[in-house]
Amino acid sequence: RDIQMISCGADKSIYFRSAQQASDGLHFVRTHHVAEKTTLYDMDIDITQKYVAVACQDRNVRVYNTMNGKQKKCYKGSQGDEGSLLKVHVDPSGTFLATSCSDKSISVIDFYSGECVAKMFGHSEIVTGMKFTYDCRHLITVSGD
């Protein structure tokens, strides 16, 4: 099985790297580079490891193919008109993803269609972490409040 490393950041780039064995050890070699027009704050990989979802400053979730670095989907990650997406988390079944926005909202989105199935407010500060439970029945969120 190939080892792959995918990274993104405020420089608006996504780097896809693959591990290669050399005589002096394991090296990560860049295989693809995507330059976006917006800052990228977070990412998560789906259960199949075929797709990576990226939370973007422009409130969109962009989904890329992990093997070729090509964008597969782009959909709204927040229903509001202000703020930036800060976190994204794909549920263990690969059916839904959750996003948190700097407007303090949380959205649950169908991973395949991009349809928002739930939107929640409740934290008085931004959400700094979130995770679906293994049975996919609960979403746990963490905030500075």
TrEMBL record:
One Pfam family matching this protein: ANAPC4_WD40
Organism placement in taxonomy: Eukaryota, Metazoa, Chordata, Craniata, Vertebrata
Gene source species: Neophocaena phocaenoides
Gene3D superfamilies for this protein: YVTN repeat-like/Quinoprotein amine dehydrogenase
Name of the gene encoding the protein in the UniProt record: WDR62
Residue span(s) of domain Anaphase-promoting complex subunit 4-like WD40: 53-133
Parts of the chain that traverse the membrane: none
InterPro entries membership: Apc4-like_WD40_dom, Quinoprotein_ADH-like_sf, WD40/YVTN_repeat-like_dom_sf, WD40_rpt, WDR62
Superkingdom field: Eukaryota
Name of this chain's protein: WD repeat domain 62
